Amino acid sequence: DSRKNEETRLNADRNNRPESRCLHAKNNALKKNNNFFRDEGIQNVTVMRDEPAVVDSNPAKIPSLMDPSKSVGLLNPIDVDLADRCFPKPRCDPDAPFRTIDGGCNNLNFPVWGQANTANTRIINANYLDGKSQQRKAISGRELPNSRHVRTTLFLDMEKPAPEHNVLVTQFGQMIAHDTELAFPKLSVNGGKLECCNPDGTTPKFLPKGCLPITIPQDDPGSKKRCLSIPRSADTSDIGCQIQPVRQLIGVSSFIDCSALYGSDAVTARSLRTLINGKLKTQLGPNGKSYLSNVKKPTQSCNVPTDNSVCYASGDPRVNQHPNMAVNTISLMRLHNILCDEFKRLNPKWNDEKIYQEARRLVIAMYQHVTYNEFLPVILGRDYCRANNLLPLSNGFDDNYDAFLNPTTFTSFTAAAYRGLHSYIQGSMDLVSESRQTTSTLRLSDIFLRPDIAQNKDNYDSLIRGMLTQHSQGQDQFFTKEITEFLFRSPNKTDGSDLITLDMERGRDFGEPPYNKFRQLCGLRAARTFGDFTDQISKKNVDALASIYEHVDDVDYYAAGILEKQKPGSIFGHTFQCVIGEMFFRWKFGDRFYYEFGKQPGSFSLDQLKEIRKTTLAFIMCVTSDIRLIQRNAFDVPSGRNPLVSCNSITKLNLAPWIDS
Ligand code: HEM
Ligand SMILES: [Ca+2]
Predict the structure, then answer these.
(1) How many whole angstroms separate alpha carbon 257 and alpha carbon 365?
(2) Under 8 Å between Cβ of 469 and 434
(3) Checking phi first, is residue 322 left (phi over 0); if not, alpha (psi -120 to 50) or beta?
(4) Please, what is the Cα angle at 632 between 434 and 627, to 5 degrees?
(5) Residues whose CB falls within 8 Å of the CB of residue 51, separated by 6 or more in sequence, listed in order
(6) For residue 44, how far is its CA from the centre of ligand 1 (angstroms)?
(7) 448-469: buried (b, 16+ CB within 10 Å) or exposed (e) per residue?
(8) Three-class SS state of 388
């Protein structure tokens, strides 16, 4: 009963939480110099991004900051933590200065918020046929249009590179996706892998329970494949928790906390540590460089010939998905281990645990800084980020931790909006030399599950330079066939899966309501006719939607979101920008350990915070590789405005503020 009273009180508080927040900036002292790098370099060069060419004179507000009468559809606060009751509450130490590995206890009142191996939350009411978990149908009661048909009609392959953004944008984006979400496939009735296709590659007449109903139309213009095996994602009903509508299970900590490097459970995290001087386990590769350690059975987890081949162990199983994914994780691992060496030098008395935790805390802070300072302005637009308090402060603490803001990854972000970045994927990966010549190009579908490539000769550095130099594909309705026809193609096969069909089907699986609901959530008028969509979507694409869907309220959020015209300064249109902005807002103000917060047990000192704010992605790339030149804006290809400069001239962090007094 007292728990119930407590919850009532908390809910009441939450409903009364202040609508607007004001961010104070405080002044801050300057500090001495001590090199993070051992070699000489120019000190304290301030890195400023060029102001964007496109200015958003009227940036929209995210739902959390909107006048409540303008955002229609935001989930009732009481329903936000519906799934909490499915999981035991962990016991928390309110004074612990470091994050838990699984993210539990970040919020002391709602300790399962953001914890790994719980469930996603929602931002908007689910739309399930039976109110519980059945995929929605068309308004007419008929089936929705076949999602493979939607894909092959709207989303073709066309070479249209992004004008400035490089492949590192895509890669960094994917890293955050893996840091904040992992869904599990449902299992078959006897607990094994669920096979949704016949052994001969055709679609079964009656799909096994738990399979997504993707059939390939007879007149499909693509390859000869006749079946896509896509199990539904596991949800709260699979662990015997009877909430309605279901919530999908999440296998990683929701927070931006580098869980893809460190792991999301204590056992995995420990297995990745040397337990000496704070360091993570490594293996030695070419030129005496360190790489992630190997899994025990490489032939099980990677597409490699023998169990002596390279196949990495890390905090997330998707590390081996393709070489650039592995390279980025290795980069973070090297950063962690470099920091361990520095901390040991500065504080010889620190033990393994202290070094590990301090290095982890700093790696996460640097990563969060790059996310909010460099990445978000690139994808969402700088003006929009500023209007929604997403930019870091330039000095002082931020005191706006919001203990009633749920940071759990919500379904509309992970099962729809953020997957929009699948459009950015390049069908090939360039390897590039120090003089920025492309030395070879790998076809994406040849290198799925081939992390060994990252550790061959000097490929690691060539892949880094490749990500920095190669343009990503543009954010548009075109997707490379490498993911729409050849996803996870086996080496000896001619076809593979279709990620974009999967994305749309996954949205229906997760109960995402149609596009029209997200228009209302994001402050737009509800459309009554297809013509009403033309405020955001070109006439031609609206006509295409109208030719596929029967009713405006049938249109999948993902499909229409992709078609929306880009907002000024952003690569996304209105409703993707809105939902993605909301999620990053929650990961900032709902994360008690967010690096800019003061007054928390885990807060940095002002001197430390000042150093963390010097972090750039260019610095991280330089310090963890042997490349010698880099452009300061690491998410833009090199150009006259963004020239290559020596790594030595990139601002470094001074770790003196970490010396124990
Ligand atoms: C070569 C690059 C990439 C490949 C091959 C890839 C592939 C995949 C696959 C196979 C899934 C699971 C699909 C499903 O069953 O629902 C997935 C999920 C997802 N992807 Fe990607 N992806 C890539 C890049 C990206 C990027 C750049 C982003 C965003 C910045 C992204 C965001 C997501 C998200 C949010 C999910 C949901 C995660 C989950 O449910 O566990 N992906 N991707
Ligand atoms: Ca995480």
Answers:
(1) 8
(2) no
(3) beta
(4) 25
(5) 382
(6) 37
(7) bbbbbbbbeebbbbbbbbbbbb
(8) coil
Report the amino acid identity of residue 312.
Y
Closest CA to 185 of 244, 245, 251, 130: 251
168 vs 627: CA distance, rounded Å:
15
Q: Give pTM, 2 decimals.
A: 0.93
**Does residue 39 carry a pLDDT above 60?**
no
Q: Could you say which ligand is closest to the alpha carbon of residue 115?
A: 2
SS3 of 646, please? strand
pLDDT on residue 12: 52
For residues 368-387, give the mean pLDDT. 98
User: What is the CA angle 228-234-239, rounded to 5?
Assistant: 155
Instruction: Give strand pairing partners of 442.
Output: 429
Q: How many CB atoms lie within 10 A of CB 166?
A: 24
In angstroms, the CA 18 to CA 16 distance is 6
Q: Which run of H or E residues covers position 441?
A: strand 438-443
What are 231's strand-pairing partners? 211
Q: 346: closest CA among 656, 611, 33, 606?
A: 656
- Active site includes 471? no
What's the whole-number mean pLDDT along residues 181-205? 90
Amino acid in the structure at residue 650: I
Bridge partners, 103 (sequence order): none
- State residue 202's pLDDT score: 82
Q: What is the pLDDT of residue 70?
A: 83
Tokens of 633: 């804006």
617 lines ligand 1 (CB under 6 A): no
Cβ–ligand 1 distance for 183 under 6 Å, the answer yes
Which of 171, 179, 419 to probe ligand 1 with, by most ligand atoms within 8 A of CB?
Answer: 419
pLDDT score of 26 more than 60: no
Nearest residue (CA) to ligand 1, atom 40: 183
Of the candidates 165, 178, 322, 369, the residue annotated as catalytic is: 178
**C-alpha pair distances (Å), 498 with each of 336, 462, 548:** 36, 29, 19
User: Looking at this protein, which amino acid is placed at residue 463?
Assistant: L
* Closest Cα to atom 20 of ligand 1: 419
Whole-number Å distance between alpha carbons of 455 and 434: 18
Ligand 1 pocket test target in 318, 499, 635 with most atoms within 8 Å of CB: 499
Distance CA 413, CA 581 (A): 10
Cα–Cα dist 77/465, whole Å: 46
